[in-house]
Structure formats: structure tokens, C-alpha cells
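FAQ: What does a ligand-bound record look like?

Like this one, built around adenosine-5-diphosphoribose:
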Amino acid sequence: MKNIVILTGAGISAESGLRTFRDSDGLWEGYNIEDVATPEAWEHNPVMVQQFYNERRKSVLEAKPNAAHYALAALEEKYKVTIVTQNIDDLHERAGSTNVVHLHGIITRSQSSIKPELTYPIDGWEIKMGEKCELGSQLRAHVVWFGEAVPMIETAAAICAGADLFILVGSSLAVYPAAGLIGYVDRGVPKYIIDPNIPSVNVRGNVIKIQEKATIGVPALVNELLKD
Ligand code: APR
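The answer part, i.e. the structure of the complex:
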């Protein structure tokens, strides 16, 4: 069975109403990354960081998967599908995808602030100051901040190296190590890129650019792949 690997970024959730990071109305327009998405920010102002992710979590819980998420889930009828996502939302899972690797964590779980491997489900939208992990440390969002390790990167690289077909949806490829994953895909493997604003990729051979938004481009490509 053909092995399809899809790398997704914030663009696939844009039409579900979740803001991307670097588009004109992007998230980072409203905040300084250094103030809300780094270990130093957590040190200096944990309440502001907690509040930032509580607000993000609320929007995620209110959002719904869109046609692009559902189309990728439908691919599983015929292919072995692995989604490697940079997104911290759970829209792929809610659309029915069963094999999702979250490179940057997932906002619907909390994490110990002294032992990252300790994560917990969150009921409701907020983590309150004072809520502690089993080791007694303050709980934080289970997301990877700038400057923190990306524990799943080796797994993701091996997954990309094994792809028979690769699809990139909705990422500016601005952030490493995630942006380097496309380089692990074999030269001869078809690499589709779906984005209204195709990012520059420094890979040779077999790149097929689909300059469309996700809810148009992804279902169209999936329909073709399900016909094969
Ligand atoms: N459909 C498809 N792609 C879209 C759409 C859409 N409707 N709208 C925007 N895009 C594309 C943009 O053209 C851009 O290429 O989505 C991409 C969004 O890029 P970023 O905002 O940089 O998001 P992403 O690439 O996921 O960022 C990577 O950076 O800030 C960190 O941890 C954060 O995971 C994030 C990482």
C-alpha cells in the first residue's frame, strides 16, 4: 500500500477560523513571540503566557475541521497516511485522521513545567495558575516553544524518508527544524505543495505546485489520488 506523508502548517486551519502566524493578520502581528512563546517568557510572566494559550485553546475548541482536514482523513481509505503537523490544534484528529504526529505539541493537553514528558488532558479551555503536575510543578500548555527541543523531529524525518508521495499544505517553511523535513523525502518522490502563496523550497525534482487555498486544493488532489 502506498505510503503518503503530509506536512501541514497553520494554513490548513486558516479556513477553520484559526489565525496563521505570518500572514498579514497573523498571530505574531498581535504579539511578540518573545513575550508569549519562549521559556524566558514563561519565567518572566507565566500568567501572560498561560493566558495567551488559554485564548488560543478557546479558539481551537470553537473551531471546526474544514474540507481539507476531512479530505486528508478520507485518504486513509486507500493509502497508509501519516500527517506530520506543525499545528497545535486537534482538527486533523477531529476530522478522523488516525495517524498524526504533532511536531510542536498539541494545545488540548497540558504539560508539567519541569518534566515535558508528563502531559495531561485538559477539561474545558483553560489551565489555571495553581494547577500542578504530579511532581508539584505548575501546568502549562503542551506546546513546543521557540528554543525548546522538538522531540518528534527524528521520528518525523524517518517518516518523510519513507514517503512514496509527499504533500505540503499551508506552511511558509519559516521555522526549522520542521522546514527541513521536505529535504528527507526521496528525490524521485512526487512532492505536492498546496498554498495560495507557494513557499520557496530548495528541493530538486518532482515538485508540483498547486496555488490554491487548502479547502480547494486538498480535496481536488485527494479526489485524483482516490481515483488511482
Ligand atoms: N490555505 C492554504 N494555505 C494557506 C491559507 C489557506 N487558506 N492561508 C494561508 N496559507 C498559507 C500561507 O500562505 C503560509 O504559507 O499558510 C502558511 C502560513 O505560514 P505560517 O503562518 O508561517 O505558519 P506555519 O508555517 O505553520 O508556521 C510554522 O512557526 O510560529 C511557529 O510554531 C509556530 O508551527 C508554527 C511554525
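Follow-up question: can I read anything off the structure? Yes, for example: The first strand starts at residue 3 and ends at 8.
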